[in-house]
Amino acid sequence: MSTTQTAPAVVRVPIVDATPDNVQPFGQLLGDDVAKPGLGIPFYQGRVLEGQNIDFEYTGKAVIRTAKILPGYPPVLWLERHMRMTQLFIALGQEPFIMVMAPPNHPSEAPDLDKVQALRFPAGHGLLLHLGTWHDFPIACERPVVVLTANSDEVVEALASMKGAHEMNQGDVFKISLPQRLKAEIHLELV
Q1: CA dihedral sign, ordered 33, 39, 44, 47
Q2: pLDDT digits (tens, 9 = 90+) for 42-55
Q3: Which residues of 83-92 are buried (b: 16+ CB within 10 A; e: fewer)?
Q4: Where does the chain show beta strands of DSSP type E?
Q5: Which phi and psi (to 5°) does residue 125 adopt?
Q6: In the chain, what is the straight-line distance between the N-terminal and C-terminal CA atoms, in Å?
Q7: Nearest to 66 by CA among 168, 122, 144, 167
Q8: CB atoms closer than 10 angstroms to residue 153
Q9: What is the distance of C-alpha 41 from the center of its chain?
């Protein structure tokens, strides 16, 4: 008996620079200007323009951590979403990062691969994801990048408890294998 295994379909996605407009389906771009200015804190008026709270949501305890991402453009094999957390990623230092994302489509259990985008965020900028946005972990461009992430403890604990890399649905992490579930993988195209 012969077992034939077909290669996954390759979805080619160009990398484009993030703007407020092209980020909007996935989340909020945080950058070199104050998000929602006008908070009335009186102590530093005239020298500080205070922004309103950003819409970071989580369940349980908030967890702030950093991760150093090594450069390269690997095939994207995993996408995940969170339904109780608006995850935050901010590039620290002088290097940009790339996010591969598909817009929320709950209750579907798979992203729409026709809507996947790869957006490059400048150094010092960040992304606050909408609830349910499908995403991979940030990808470094030409040099390593350190990102600050804001999570919930349930997400970090669920991911760290995994004994191996396979699909999961626990602790507000629904992570799928693109080759296994959709017979596809995403390849990034430099433009």
Answers
A1: positive
A2: 888 888 888 888 99
A3: eebbbbbbbe
A4: 9-17, 27-30, 62-69, 78-81, 88-92, 97-102, 117-121, 126-129, 134-135, 139-140, 145-152, 168-170, 173-177, 184-189
A5: -110, 165
A6: 45
A7: 144
A8: 14
A9: 31
Residue type, 37: P
Q: Both tokens of residue 77? A: 């094999």
Measured in whole angstroms, how far is the alpha carbon of residue 139 from the centre of its chain? 9
Pairing of strands 9-17, 184-189: parallel
Tokens 């760290």 locate to 160
CB of 89 within 8 A of CB of 148? yes
Residue with tokens 């579930």: 181
Q: What is the value of pTM for the model shown?
A: 0.92
Q: Tens digit of pLDDT for each residue in 114-159?
A: 999 999 999 999 999 999 999 999 999 999 999 999 999 999 999 9
Please, are residues 117 and 172 in contact by the beta-carbon 8 Å criterion?
Answer: no
Number of helices (H), then strands (E), in the chain = 2, 14
